[in-house]
Amino acid sequence: MSLTVKHLERMKFEVECRSHKIVVDQPKSSDGTDQGMNPIELFNAGLASCAAFYAITFLSRRINKLGGLEVKSSWNYTEHPHRVGEISLTIRLPCSLSENERKGLIGTAEHCAVKNSLEYPPKIQITLKDQ
Fold first, then answer.
1. Which of 48, 83, 100, 107 could form a disulfide with 73 if both were Cys (CB 3.0 to 4.6 A apart)?
2. SS in 3 state form for the chain?
3. What ranges do the domains of the chain cover?
4. Is pLDDT of 94 > 90?
5. Is it the case that residue 63 has pLDDT exceeding 80?
6. What is the pTM for the complete model shown?
7. pLDDT band at 95 (very low <50, low <70, confident <90, very high)
């Protein structure tokens, strides 16, 4: 898999993957135009939407009405180096579940590939290529 990030203006970028495009930007306080989420927000969006995918997969085998599921991600920064130090995901359910179903849903959501990639980090290589 791959994607391409192209600079548009100031701190605004376009990310293209397959046939999809999104805008990544910084808030105005960081010299951006605030026309898109910043990279840390996208990072958390990836994790939360991955957990939501697994939650819906689990729930779809048990209930017919899936509307209303939400996953909220909140995070804190830490320093040395500057990074996200803690992330909390909260899954708001569309229905009540038994205690066993609740455990099963959490167990299923923990299979998220984004979560696994954070817990078992990939090797990251940065190279330069002149035009």
1. 48
2. CCCEEEEEECCEEEEEECCEEEEECCCHHHCCCCCCECHHHHHHHHHHHHHHHHHHHHHHCCCCCCCCCEEEEEEEEECCCCEEEEEEEEEECCCCCCHHHHHHHHHHHCCCHHHHHHHCCCCCCCCCCCC
3. 1-36, 38-123
4. no
5. no
6. 0.91
7. confident
